[in-house]
Design goal:
By secondary structure, the protein is mainly beta. It has three helices and 35 strands. It has a 35-stranded parallel beta sheet that branches. It is elongated.
């Protein structure tokens, strides 16, 4: 075979191969296109004036009929009523795309609230799901993705307007295999995200700047929340609950929350980068387990989170549930307007009459730095029902201070059936740690100090049995003991120091 013939054969081969690749790429592109459903091809306009929810729902239905796919929302402003998710369908918001909740009215296509399975033992908003901007029930393998925004502009934040009002940005009931990632939620209504009875839930890298709860994870299992920033000055930021909304008790369990930031700046100033503070408010914006706590909380891990201009951690069992096996580590807090750590076992008992007081036990909290904090760490069971086996270690607490000797003598009401909020207990008789009705408390490598002189004890143990204090360093007031005890036993001190004179008084 001569050289010219070889060149001719090789040239023919490359031409045929290139043609094959082009045809294959075209087929793949066409195949890929068949699984992407652009809402504009279904009639969406995206001008922020015309209602686009019917077109969006058409695209979702088409994807579901095809066996699944991605509903693509390109850049634009999409005025919308209720959007109904379907199994095996992903809702993707492109950069520059905003879904805007229309005002609640008959012509704006919001779904009416469905009859709740149970409405007796939890708030109204936890009992209904269909009256939302985006909702899904009994679905599997769904996702809400993309760099776009969900703006709950027309959502109500409470039930003052009565029934049939849309008040949630995203509501999911009894779903599984759910992924919510990368989106931004602005002014999300009563709940930015409400997930009830959802298993295998991933919430990753979202931003919320909202007027009520950022996200409520209720009666859910196998949940991972990561890399999220939630600003919610009027309510909780990231909140785990276990309500009776399903008609029975179900624990929220196997949950990780990591690399998240919660805050309480003036709504809207988080997303615009001005981070304004309201000097007349005590913003919320925290991470909380409770208040609804019928089913309990098990196997919860929270790590690597920041709190800024908000309230502190809250772990609450007040409706007869078990709250157990919780670890919290690597948390930094600044400008905390109440207790940096609040553990509460109570007897509010909002649930069936047969339910008994629950348990709060096996909680480990470590590596915490809290600066400019208003109140002490508060750990409180109730008479006859102790919080059990709590360990606090490697904690640096800088309290505002200015406590008086009169406040050091104050009797704190039990508030057994009250709403579990640290503010309800009033000024505490200790500036650093106030613990009562506790069995098994370990305090190790704790550094307590105030920013203004405080004349209350640093630590007060009331009805605490079996407390082990190791390497506790305290800045005492000039006229108060570092540690005070009442009706307590088994208190052990090991290498603990008064910061001023080298001994613990």
């Amino acid at each position: 075979m001569n050289r010219k013939t070889k060149i001719l054969i090789i040239s023919i081969f490359y031409v045929c191969f290139a043609s094959f690749i082009a045809n294959l790429s075209s087929a793949r592109a066409q195949d890929l296109h068949s699984f992407i459903f652009n809402v504009k091809q279904y009639g969406a306009i995206g001008d922020g004036k015309n209602l686009d929810s019917r077109a969006i729902n058409k695209a979702i239905n088409a994807a579901a009929i095809a066996g699944g796919g991605t509903v693509f929302i390109p850049a634009g402003n999409y005025l919308s009523g209720s959007i109904r998710l379907k199994s095996n369908v992903s809702l993707y918001l492109d950069q520059g795309a905003t879904i805007i909740a229309a005002d609640v009215s008959a012509e704006n296509d919001y779904d009416e609230e469905e009859p709740g399975v149970n409405t007796s033992y939890q708030d109204y908003g936890h009992s209904h799901f269909h009256n939302s901007l985006i909702w899904g029930e009994n679905l599997h393998d769904i996702s809400i993705l993309g760099e776009g925004t969900i703006w709950g502009k027309g959502l109500y934040h409470d039930y003052a307007k009565g029934k049939q009002t849309a008040n949630k940005a995203i509501a999911l009931l009894l779903c599984r295999n759910v992924n919510i990632s990368d989106i931004t939620i602005r002014h999300g209504g009563w709940f930015g995200i409400l997930a009830t009875g959802v298993d295998n839930l991933t919430i990753n890298d979202i931003k919320e700047d909202t007027n009520r709860d950022g996200m409520d994870i209720d009666c859910c299992r196998n949940v991972h929340v990561s890399n999220c920033s939630v600003n919610s000055p009027k309510d909780d930021g990231i909140c785990l609950k276990s309500s009776f909304a399903l008609g029975f008790s179900r624990a929220t369990e196997n949950v990780t929350i990591t690399n998240c930031a919660v805050s309480g700046f003036v709504e809207g100033t988080f997303l615009d980068g001005t981070y304004q503070r309201d000097p007349n408010s005590r913003p919320t914006g925290r991470i909380k387990l409770g208040t609804e706590s019928n089913g309990g909380f098990k196997n919860i891990a929270i790590s690597n989170c920041t709190f800024d201009n908000c309230r502190g951690l809250a772990l609450e069992s007040v409706d007869g549930a078990l709250l157990e096996d919780v670890t919290i580590s690597n948390i930094t807090m600044r400008d905390i307007c109440n207790a940096p750590i609040f553990l509460r076992l109570g007897a509010r008992m909002r649930g069936p009459d047969s339910v008994k007081v629950g348990e709060l036990r096996r909680v480990v909290i470590s590596n915490i730095v809290a600066y400019n904090v208003s109140d002490a760490i508060l750990i409180s069971g109730i008479p006859g029902n102790d919080i059990k086996d709590v360990e606090l270690s490697h904690i640096k607490l800088y309290v505002k201070g200015k406590g008086s000797p009169e406040q050091a003598k104050r009797e704190v009401a039990e508030m057994e059936k009250g709403y579990p909020e640290p503010d309800s207990f009033g000024i505490l008789p200790a500036y650093g740690i106030y613990a009562r009705h506790v069995a098994g408390l370990k305090l190790e490598d704790i550094d307590l100090s105030y920013m203004n002189e405080d004349l209350r004890p640093a630590i007060l143990l009331n009805d605490v049995h079996g407390a082990d204090l190791r390497f506790v360093k305290i800045q005492p007031g000039s006229s108060s003991p570092a540690v005070s005890t009442n009706n307590s036993s088994g208190i052990m001190l090991f290498q603990s120091l008064n910061q001023n004179d080298g001994e613990l008084k």
